[in-house]
Write a structure and sequence with these properties.
This protein has 221 residues and is an alpha+beta fold. Helix content is 41%, strand content 14%. The protein has helices spanning 3-9, 23-32, 52-67, 87-102, 109-117, 139-158, 173-180, 213-216; strands spanning 45-51, 127-134, 162-166, 186-195. A four-stranded antiparallel beta sheet has the order 1-2-4-3, with helices on both faces. The protein is globular.
Length: 221
């Protein structure tokens, strides 16, 4: 696949087929993605890949946590508390577009909560990935994590797989790091659902827009 085609094809998939992912393929892609750039070649990413019985166990844990209404201190603020326009507007718009695709009106709060809870079952994906980072790292290294994850996502697309990057896992850092046995000097950054897209899931029909170039780029020479 051409790089440009992979970039255009990649998107967040929220419904997966009951089709296993070859662990050897996933291992190879995770390793290849480590060619992603990082400042000073620090390579700050730490990756845990979960599947099979381990993933089933984690899903069971999360069902119990959500049923009990358990809450934890988030690892970090996923969005700024006072997000301003145009960023706030973009976030609102994509949420409304997604719920429109799955037919849940804004006033049906219970249905929206139930849909959001599917995040914590990886939308039915047969494989998952968690990315953690040493607590001494700062914003530059966090950007390196993004470069690793984007590189991996493009490799997944090239291999015929789909995924959904999930920062939502940052609201359950104690559960996840405890399950993974993550050392105390590392913190949870993000999760990711990985598998084969189920085209029959209405949410997967969503194609998010992008702001026009003139809104965010300037060229001078």
């Amino acid at each position: 696949m051409e790089v440009a085609q992979a970039v255009a094809s990649r998107r967040s998939v929220r419904g997966f087929l009951d089709r296993p992912v070859d662990p050897a393929l996933l291992r190879a892609l995770v390793e290849k993605a480590a060619r992603a750039p990082s400042g000073g070649n620090v390579q700050p990413w730490h990756v845990d890949v979960v599947g099979g019985e381990s993933l089933a166990a984690l899903k069971a844990v999360m069902r119990e946590r959500l049923a009990a209404g358990a809450a934890e201190t988030p690892a970090y603020a996923i969005y700024p508390p006072a997000l301003t326009a145009p960023y706030r507007d973009r976030r609102f718009a994509v949420g409304e577009q997604m719920y429109a695709h799955i037919g849940i009106p804004r006033e049906d709060k219970a249905a929206r909560r139930a849909w959001f809870a599917r995040n914590f079952q990886f939308f039915g994906a047969p494989a998952a990935l968690f990315c953690t980072v040493d607590r001494q790292m700062g914003p530059p290294q966090w950007s390196d994590l993004g470069m690793y994850l984007q590189t991996l996502m493009l490799l997944l697309v090239d291999a015929g797989l789909s995924c959904c990057p999930q920062e939502c896992w940052a609201v359950y850092p104690d559960t996840i790091t405890g399950f993974l046995g993550t050392p105390a000097d590392r913190m949870l950054f993000s999760g990711m659902a990985i598998g084969y897209e189920d085209p029959s899931v209405p949410a997967n029909a969503l194609r998010t827009g992008r702001a026009p170039l003139e809104e965010w780029a300037r060229f001078r020479w």
